[in-house]
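=== RUN LOG ===
request id: a7f3
mode: sequence -> structure
chains: 1
length: 316
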Amino acid sequence: MALLTSTIGSFPKPPALHEARRRFRDGEIDAASLREVEDEAVRRAVDFQEGLGLSLLVDGEMDRADPITTFAEGLSGIEIDGWVRIYGDRYVRRPRIVGPIGRGVAGTTDRWTWARDLTRRVMKAVIPGPYSLMDASFDEHYDSRREACLAFADVVRDEAVALVAAGAREIQLDEPSAGARATEAGLLHEALERVVAPLRGRARVWLYLGYVDFASAGADLATLPAHGLLVAGAHCDYEGLDAFTRALPNDRVAGIGVVDVVDPHVETEEEIRSRIAHLRELLPPDRLWAVPDGGLRALRVDVARAKLTAMASAAK
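=== RESULT ===
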């Protein structure tokens, strides 16, 4: 039985887009010209996914330098601070909460609608989750992490509801910070429930949990409010994953990483099929999706395409 397939969201930005962003930053082109280059990159990403036959498509996040920062900079009550190193040689500009958080102009609906109209396949909408938005921000306004997290939850909920009103039926919430603090498991659940509650019966909600410690947190994370959970696994040979799959409710599906997005080595189809065979021992194929471990943004374009091509072929 073939597995259904998707990606986590981000694709590598092509050299032409990097150059366009440099020219925009230096004042050589205007925002409209930059958007044309972004649009072309989205078209190419969508066409490539269609060619592979992926079950759920994404726009590739070509207009987002960083998912958290790009979303947060459109919110009221937020200023974007200087560069912060998050790991290796990757730096992001971190949001700073300076007042009550509001939705402002942070709408993703128009961009999702534009990408959706490029294809007859289903286009997944991807937005940051409230807990990770809170965890990635400097807070100079709220009295507690809980207060800040629930303020973000209200904004994310409104964004998700707007996407559903525009026709989105598949929505992914990115929560890579989930599981980072065991003492805040209740807060994570509370914030996500606030977002997901109005979407039930209207859209399928996916929750990307990223690189979690399955042995210590897998069982708790498996019961978070979502229809589908997405986790990394190829990078660690699925160590401790059985704790997660045993706790996964029977009415939920899981997308589990079968290609490593940190290692530039391109897996063979046989390597990926071996990983899939292992996963099918833990979950039945009708509840298992094949996905990459995470976003593809850090890979070269050719490497990302080769990994996805091998994944799609192996999943068939």
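=== NOTES ===
The chain has eleven helices and ten strands.
The CA atoms of residues 50 and 121 lie 8 Å apart.
=== END ===
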